[in-house]
Amino acid sequence: MKPAPFAYAKARSLDHAIALLDGAPEARILAGGQSLMPALNMRLSTPSLLVDINRVSELSQIAQRNGQLELGALARHAEVELSLLVARLAPLLAMALPHIAHPAIRNRGTVGGSIALADPAAELPACLLALGGEIEIASRAGRRTVAADAFFKGLFETALSPGEIITAIRIPVAQPHDRFGFAELARRHGDYALVGLAAASRAEPRAIRLAYFGVGTTPVRARAAETALARGDINAAVAAVARDLEPSGDVHASAAAKRHLASVLLRRVAAQVIPL
Amino acid sequence: MSDRIDITLTVNGEPVGAEVEPRQNLVDFLREALQLTGSHVGCEHGVCGACTVRVDGVIVRGCLLLAVQCEGCSVETIEGISDAGEIADLQAAFCARNALQCGFCTPGMLLTAQELLLKSNGGAPSRDEIRAHLSGNYCRCTGYQAIVDAVEDVALTRKGAAR
């Protein structure tokens, strides 16, 4: 299908983008467009105005700042995947990126777009949650920062309000004894996950965060399993994950199958984060 | 405000100016305004890869990019890349290996495979790497085996030639 008609405006700067969004509640931000365009083509989304931020170069940075890795909202998946800085400071992202869609889509898709869309089966929202990252947001009212733990509210629902735009995500950089794990099961490489798991084991202070995707309306932390895994008790963690998660079945897998696959992934990821 | 917008871009090395509706996809623009029908329209939601084209040196989905976004860009289609001789070896290998039947997916397959081979920088990607890179391109005829064979042949030949 073809999109319904809409107006198009190209933002020259972040301030210009905010001005274009202000007072246009029916507007959508066009970043990589790799999820928005399908929604437009299928007329699941019919905005009156697209605000194209692709030329806002101030949103493209990949940089280390104040002990954090900062990824601009417009950083493309392919750039993040190949970034040596990301591989060193946030190895979990380097592990996850090859699982995001396909090369042609990673050439366009953006970090900010993936976080803003908040697809519950997507990799980056779960990684940001596992890493204890934060999201920087700008609007006419100024700037604010929201922790990943407070950002994902419901199915495709986030802490973003109309007129707001994600400018960057920030991630605490990996320390020498931190370990990371990632695994997902999909029908075809690059498809959205049936079930996926991103994990971060931090040494100082000692903490493990497990963020599942594809098992709920948002990325979900398995908190009881985190506690068990922090003790090194993998069997207890696997038992706990059945209580942590309440997956719904979908066309690809039943709830019971997802619960089973979640425990399979936990054993795989535990082997990555816990030295055997 | 959904008025038509003037764009100028380069398509296969030639400057192009046109007036487009904001909602027109790049692949529809190429096919309908420029009669470059080598890029195919399959699923229109980014799953099949039949519309793959190169924009500013990297492959993209032609159905997931608006023509109006390509202002100032360099767009290359299968027509230009084929005529330039850049993928003559890949095309020959696809024929030799029976890596196409109906041909609908072939332009996208060729451009996607060429990106992998360029990225590999003289080294030969493994069959697994070839499969992973082509994972976003559907073929409903061949079962992929012959396509992987063809890409692998060219990878090994180019690697040999690079030495």
Walk me through this protein's architecture:
The complex is a heterodimer of chains A (276) and B (163). Chain A has 3 domains: 7-52, 2-Layer Sandwich (Uridine Diphospho-n-acetylenolpyruvylglucosamine Reductase, domain 2); 57-172, Uridine Diphospho-n-acetylenolpyruvylglucosamine Reductase, domain 3; 179-273, Enolase-like, domain 1. The longest helix of chain A is centred in the C-terminal third of the chain and has 19 residues, at 255-273. Chain A is globular, with a radius of gyration of 19 Å. Chain A has 12 helices and 14 strands. Chain A is an alpha+beta fold and 276 residues long. Chain B has a 5-stranded mixed beta sheet, with helices on both faces. Chain B starts with a strand and ends with a helix. Chain B is 38% helix and 15% strand. Chain B is built from 6 helices and 5 strands. Chain B is globular and about 50 Å long. Chain B folds into 2 domains: 5-81, Roll (Ubiquitin-like (UB roll)), CATH 3.10.20; 87-162, DNA polymerase, domain 1 (Orthogonal Bundle), CATH 1.10.150.120. Chain B has 163 residues and is an alpha+beta fold. In chain B, helix 3 (88-96) crosses helix 6. Chain B has helices at 26-33, 78-83, 88-96, 106-119, 127-133, 145-162, and strands at 5-11, 14-20, 52-55, 58-61, 74-76.
Return the domain count of chain B.
Answer: 2
Number of strands of chain B: 5
Order of strands across the biggest sheet of chain A?
4-5-10-6-7
CATH architecture of the largest domain in chain A: 2-Layer Sandwich
Uncertain residue segments of chain A: none
Terminal residue distance of chain B: 57 Å
Q: Please state the CA-atom Rg of chain B, rounded to the nearest Å.
A: 16 Å
- What structural category do the secondary elements of chain B indicate? alpha+beta
> SS-based structural class of chain A?
alpha+beta
Features:
heterodimer; A: 276 residues; alpha+beta; Uridine Diphospho-n-acetylenolpyruvylglucosamine Reductase, domain 2; Uridine Diphospho-n-acetylenolpyruvylglucosamine Reductase, domain 3; Enolase-like, domain 1; five-stranded antiparallel beta sheet; four-stranded antiparallel beta sheet; 14 strands; 34% helix; globular; B: 163 residues; Ubiquitin-like (UB roll); DNA polymerase, domain 1; 6 helices; 38% helix; 15% strand
